[in-house]
Amino acid sequence: MIKILNNTILFLLIGVFLLSSGFAAVAKAPPLSLGSHFAAQGNYDAAITEYKRFIFFHPDDPRLGEVYHDIGLAYRAEGLWTEAIAALRTATHYATDRESKSEYQLALAVTLIATKNYDLAELELIKVMLRNPSVRLHRRMLFLKTVLYIYQFRWKEARRVGREYTTDERLETLFDAAVNTPQKSANVASLLSKILPGLGHVYIGDWRNGLNALLLNGALGFLTIDAILDEHYTDAALWVGLVLLRYYRGNTFRARTAVEQFNLQKSRQAAEVLLQRLQKIADTP
């Protein structure tokens, strides 16, 4: 009996040893390669788990910056923008050299641009520029800065930085078109709508809404005048006070909004063409 008990204890000790050895093996480099494998397969949750396992067992490892960078990219691929930004900021904190820090900040800038945090993205790009990075990273910085300005419709600044990035003549022509993008005046549309309801929409080529506004306000005006002619002054006052003025003022407001949307759409179209050309330049060896 004692012999059986001793054998049992021996097996338990061996099992504990093997189990602890297994944990020790997991705690070493394999989580990084396994995490990279999962990320390549698109299994980002599993990749993040493996990266965090490495961080837990190696809190002082010099590769922490790289690991947090990979975590940030995995979060970004999942569309978890807040987590991605936090991880990439941590990566820059743990970066052990200037080149890596610039690399992580560029990845952070991309994420901030994607989330429309343009001011913060520009700040990260300025930090990279002040660090005097390598030629490769400097070109990436110029590319992202051009993209950033294009997204903000800052055509002149985008062109200035873009010229440092490339001498592409087609891109220069597209910048000319962007600078000269036709813009309508919201004040003019508002004034035209006050003169004649619907005329503000016609000003931007929106004939359908312009005609609807004209017919609706015209019909309300007719009903008001008809009530006055029939000496139904209370009804006429109600038509004017509760209905006609509301639609008349609303027509003016909608005309102004329509112009703003028109201008925004034109700017977006110009930006899309520029970004497509810029991407084509970047993809060209």
Summary, kept brief:
The chain is an all-alpha fold. The protein has helices spanning 2-26, 30-40, 44-57, 64-78, 81-94, 98-114, 118-130, 135-151, 155-165, 169-179, 186-195, 199-203, 207-229, 233-283. The protein folds into 2 domains: 2-181, Serine Threonine Protein Phosphatase 5, Tetratricopeptide repeat; 186-277.
Describe the model:
With 285 residues, the protein is mainly α. Helices cover 83% and strands 0% of the residues. The chain has helices at 2-26, 30-40, 44-57, 64-78, 81-94, 98-114, 118-130, 135-151, 155-165, 169-179, 186-195, 199-203, 207-229, 233-283.
Number of strands: 0
Shape: elongated
Rounded mean pLDDT score: 78
Helix-and-strand structural type:
mainly alpha
Oligomer: single chain
Low-confidence stretches: 1-28, 238-245
- Written as H for each helix and E for each strand, in order along the chain, the element string is HHHHHHHHHHHHHH
Question: What about the largest sheet?
Answer: none
Topology:
Elements: H1 2-26, H2 30-40, H3 44-57, H4 64-78, H5 81-94, H6 98-114, H7 118-130, H8 135-151, H9 155-165, H10 169-179, H11 186-195, H12 199-203, H13 207-229, H14 233-283
Main attributes?
Serine Threonine Protein Phosphatase 5, Tetratricopeptide repeat, single chain, elongated, 2 domains, mainly alpha, 285 residues, 14 helices, 0% strand
